[in-house]
Amino acid sequence: MTIYALSSGPGISGVAVIRISGEATSNVIKKLTCKELPRPREATLRKINKINTSELIDEGLVLWFPGPESFTGEDMAEIQVHGSKAVVDALHSTLSSIENCRLAEPGEFTKLAFQNGKINLLKAESIADLISSETEIQRQQAIKIMNGKSSDQFNFLRDKLLKILSHIEAKIDFPDEDLPNNILEEIKSSLDEIIKKIKKILNDQKVGERIREGFKIAILGPTNAGKSSLLNHLSNRDVAIVSEIAGTTRDVIETHLNIDGYPVIISDTAGIRDSKDEIEKKGIKLSLNRAEEADLKLVVVDPKNLDFNGVLKGLLDENAILVINKSDLLEKDIDPEIKKTNHVLISIKDNKNIEELIFKIKKNLKNKFISSDDILITRERHRQHLQQCLDHLKNFNQKKEIQDFDKAAEDLRLATRHLGMIVGKVDVEEILGSIFNDFCIGK
Q1: Given phi > 0 = left and psi -120 to 50 = alpha, else beta, which region is 117?
Q2: Are 86 and 230 in the same domain?
Q3: Residue 150 sits in a domain of what CATH number?
Q4: Residue 142 CB contacts under 8 Å (≥ 6 apart), including other chains
Q5: How many whole angstroms separate alpha carbon 421 and alpha carbon 413?
Q6: Which of 47, 108, 51, 99 is nearest to 76 (CA)?
């Protein structure tokens, strides 16, 4: 099967790139251009025609990449034409008329590259991250993963486990032979080192995932405190409806921001209060759930609600900023207990102290996004496999101590398998669909 797709993204543009990959690629190019193939990896100007009728579609550049020296590892070509919808549609239409030639599925080109051994699974994921990156820090992280440092680290740990496994299997195959003391010491030393390294990787404060997915900020508080107004102010646009009627916000409203190069997702939530309205009660439950997931909580209150306790008080932990809005209505000094909290007095109406609040948000952001060259985990999938690897290594240690080498070896095999699944060293068909479905068509 030969696949094709627009790789440069939809919409009007100066140039559109249509990518083709598969065993019939050379024939497709000959039929489209009515000429022999151009020289490999050399941009060649050709007339692009409709197949069968020879009607001119456009004139553009053709690049021919014979496999296996191509991105997908198969015969592949890229056609650069003018980026109008009509040109792209005409080219797609004529390609679809060729037998065994179909439109590519999302991520199918990169999936082929992985399956043909051109890239590993981590690099495939980092390509998707690079395409979807919106901030500088996201771009930098994707490039680091693409460069292979994470893959090298996981492969290094896996190779060490495989070496230990070979010694254990030798003991199983020759039970009457005792393992030399130096081998036993080497196994213990290597295993301790691997466990220590995996624990260090897991203890990363989820920085990699925060960079990839965005730093989550939840705006919480009672009704009519100014939560929606604050969201609109931070976003510089009307994202949420602002009304004097209490309980206007029933659902969670999200907006994505770029704050000093850091990706941020800010959520405006339903006002927290006792309510008999079933819809509003569901909105309040969503608010509390969002508070649990947030990296930072902005608890917004007004001067009339400073004597709060219960749920709102419980939100004020080390990952929260108390935002006292409508400070122009404050008639007396705030309570000394409130002064002890991480707080800021603002007035959205008068645009007062908003910069101080933003400074506090930025400070919190930078503390959570501690720059490190050791960021290896960027997805929950990686974290789960590493944790399972660690669990099996702990089980291995326990069984090894009681000389149960048969069962211990199985734990070691499973630990090795989980490390391999991160980079795609073992059968990972069950996770490929979820990974490549996140890609755009044409990549």
Answers
A1: left
A2: no
A3: 1.20.120.430
A4: 126, 127, 129, 130, 133
A5: 12
A6: 108
**Same domain, yes or no: 222 and 358:** yes
Residues ≥6 apart with Cβ < 8 Å to 213: 263, 265
Q: Produce one character per residue of 21-30: b if its CB has 16 or more CB atoms within 10 Å, e if not.
A: bbebbbbbbe
Q: In this structure, what token pair is assigned to residue 407?
A: 């069962």
The two structure tokens encoding residue 218: 């939840």
- Residue 441 belongs to some domain of the structure: no
pLDDT of residue 16: 95
Total of domains in the chain: 3
240 with 265, same domain: the answer is yes
The 10s digit of each residue's pLDDT in 322-335 is 888 887 777 667 77
* Both tokens assigned to 300: 């917004």
Residue 40 clears pLDDT 90, i.e. is over it? yes
Measure the CA–CA gap between 85 and 154, rounded to whole angstroms. 44
Where would I find the H helices in 294-404? 311-315, 336-339, 354-368, 380-401
Write the CA distances from 104 to 61, 264, 328, 399, 443, integer angstroms.
21, 32, 59, 49, 9
DSSP letter for each residue of 381-408: HHHHHHHHHHHHHHHHHHHHHTT-HHHH
Q: How many CB atoms lie within 10 A of CB 346?
A: 24
Q: Is residue 320 part of a domain?
A: yes
Count the alpha carbons within 13 Å of 60 in the hemisphere toward its beta carbon. 25
Residues 172 and 215 in one domain: no
Does 246 map to a domain?
A: yes
* Structure-token pair, residue 148: 């292979």
Shared domain check, 198 and 219:
no
Question: Mind listing the pLDDT tens digit for each residue in 7-25?
Answer: 998 888 999 999 999 999 9
Domain boundary residue, one of 75, 104, 133: 104
pLDDT in tens, 266-291: 888 776 655 555 655 666 667 777 77
Task: Please report which helix (H) or strand (E) contains residue 137, including its range.
Answer: helix 136-146
Which residues have a Cβ under 8 Å from the Cβ of 305 and sit 6 or more positions away? Answer: 221, 222, 225
Q: Which domain holds residue 7?
A: 2-104
Give the residues across from 103 on adjacent strands. Answer: 4
Judge if 28 and 82 occupy the same domain. yes
E strand or H helix at 45, and its extent? strand 44-49
What are the CB-based long-range contacts (under 8 Å, 24+) for 331-336? 331/303, 334/306, 335/306, 335/307
Examine residue 442 and state whether it is found in any structural domain, yes or no. no
- Tell me the torsion sign for CA atoms 157, 161, 166, 171: positive
